[in-house]
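S1.2 Input.
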Amino acid sequence: MKNNIMVVDDEPIARQSLSDILRLEGYNVTAIANGELAVEHVRRYAVDLILLDLKMPGMNGLDVVQVVNQISPDTEIILLTAYGSMESAVEALRQRVHDYLLKPASPMQILESVKRGLERRAARLSENTDTTGSQVFKMLDGTEVDLMRRVVVSGSVEESLTPAEGHLLKVFLENVGKVFSHRELVLLVQGYDVSQREAQEILRPLVSRLRHKLSVFPKLYKRIVSVRGTGYFFEFE
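S1.3 Output.
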């Protein structure tokens, strides 16, 4: 399976150049022009590694790092900047950034850093699997949910989940029959507390996306039940 890499840079030429270098190596690449859109993409899709410009209008690179570390902690991040300083480098490394490259970095430097970042990610996921087990749930119809890899498989059909979708499904699978309020689910999945009204607005599109992906697995899809005005629960099989 190809790795998913996101390039975030407000300079069109730099964004295109980085994307071309990575695509030629066979990676799946998504190019994004600002930090706000980058964060939204990570909430919606699985991203293995991010090449991230440090200096951008709006959310800068370090702002994006803080949010991504909360919502997708297994995503590796490489910061790129034309304004290198020891202070910003130290701050970046303190926030669990894999690498820090000065622009313009050579294609060889970029590819080597990306390779090491993906190897580190794979090693960390392998260690987590060895420690906590495979975290595979098997349904009566043969459908398997691998929470570590964030994939659902049935025969030849396979569907990948985003970090948020994976966390939500994990909460459901580990708490079958328990009714969760919207606020409880946002806190468990996204890590922050909001009002009930805000929680409904956050969860509605997330649950909708998860249900859409699970629609090819009917017996799994039907088990996510909405409790009107309250929240959701996962039915017994």
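S1.4 Remarks. The longest helix spans residues 107-132.
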